[in-house]
Design brief:
The chain is an alpha+beta fold. The chain has 7 helices and 10 strands. The chain starts with a helix and ends in a 14-residue tail after the last strand.
């Protein structure tokens, strides 16, 4: 039922009382529409008739036209409102779809395609955010840099396909070893990293040791090939030098790298924490 149909039914009684004629509405093509007791109004397929068949005066006809013209305008306004409402709902759906697509695109662009970990650029951005937050609020945060020991030998012995599978397995171990708000990433090649918000250096060493022992204890099988890998890990954190007022992501990464190379120099498959004495450590050791 349209607004005109509904309104016509409600308006007939007061209109009948006003012009003192019993009124009814019939289809616009009814034979009765040709008589003087009928008025074709500005509404689709509607004619108002006087049930007692008394003719309408000109004033009464004008009144009926005006009343039904207003009803018709109301229907058009309602139709425009419904159209606007549907358009708004459509825009909301389109906007939601766009948000989802953008989120998916952001997620894809922040991931390393081989391991599924976060990529280098996302890790650096996250590191910058966490450093700034830590410096503003005085909360600790730490960074692990990990490098697989003698990874080149795996590629040379078994081929790059096996090497890629090893990297995937290491990525899974990192994900399984982290909290939901930690940020594990592949920094490049066989080098990985983990950003640890709200974590002091003492606690970070426990996490690093857990990752190191898990990797060393895991035998990876790829067809007939069985591979074990170990990793050297360096740790640095915002609370490592409390007197400093600022610390950039590049500086923190360099410190963790220095600690990593110290672990390499001291025999590999170990964890080392940065301190100022490592500033001159030789990082030329082969992986």
């Amino acid at each position: 039922m349209t607004i005109v149909d509904s309104a016509a039914g409600r308006i007939l009684s007061p209109l009948s009382a006003l012009i003192q004629k019993p009124l009814a509405v019939v289809a616009g093509q009814s034979p009765e529409t040709a008589h003087q007791f009928a008025v074709r109004v500005e509404a689709p397929r509607l004619t108002v008739i006087s049930k007692d068949r008394r003719p309408f005066t000109e004033a009464e006809r004008e009144l009926l036209h005006q009343v039904f013209a207003l009803i018709r305008q109301a229907e058009e306004s309602e139709a425009r409102y419904r159209e606007l409402e549907q358009r708004m709902l459509s825009l909301q759906r389109e906007n939601l779809d766009l948000i989802v697509k953008n989120r998916n695109l952001t997620e894809v662009s922040s991931r390393d395609t081989l391991t599924g970990l976060y990529n280098r650029w996302y890790v650096i951005e996250k590191l910058d955010t966490e450093i700034n937050r830590s410096l503003r609020h005085g909360s600790p945060m730490s960074l692990l840099m990990l490098d697989l020991d003698h990874f080149k030998k795996i590629n040379d012995t078994y081929g790059h396909n096996v090497g890629d599978e090893v990297l995937k397995s290491v990525g899974k171990t990192l994900r399984d070893s982290c909290r939901v708000y930690d940020v594990p990433g592949r920094y490049g090649g066989e080098e990985f990293c983990v950003v640890l918000p709200e974590t002091r250096l003492g606690n970070t060493a426990v996490v690093a040791e857990r990752i190191r022992t898990r990797l060393a204890a895991t035998e990876m099988h790829f067809g007939d090939v069985a591979v074990r890998v170990t990793t050297s890990i360096g740790i640095a954190g915002v609370d490592s030098v409390p007197e400093e007022g600022t610390l950039s992501p590049a500086a923190l990464i360099e410190r963790a790298d220095r600690a990593l190379y110290s672990a390499k120099n001291r025999g590999r498959n170990r964890v080392e924490t940065w301190d100022s004495a490592l500033s001159d450590v030789d990082d030329s050791t082969g992986h």
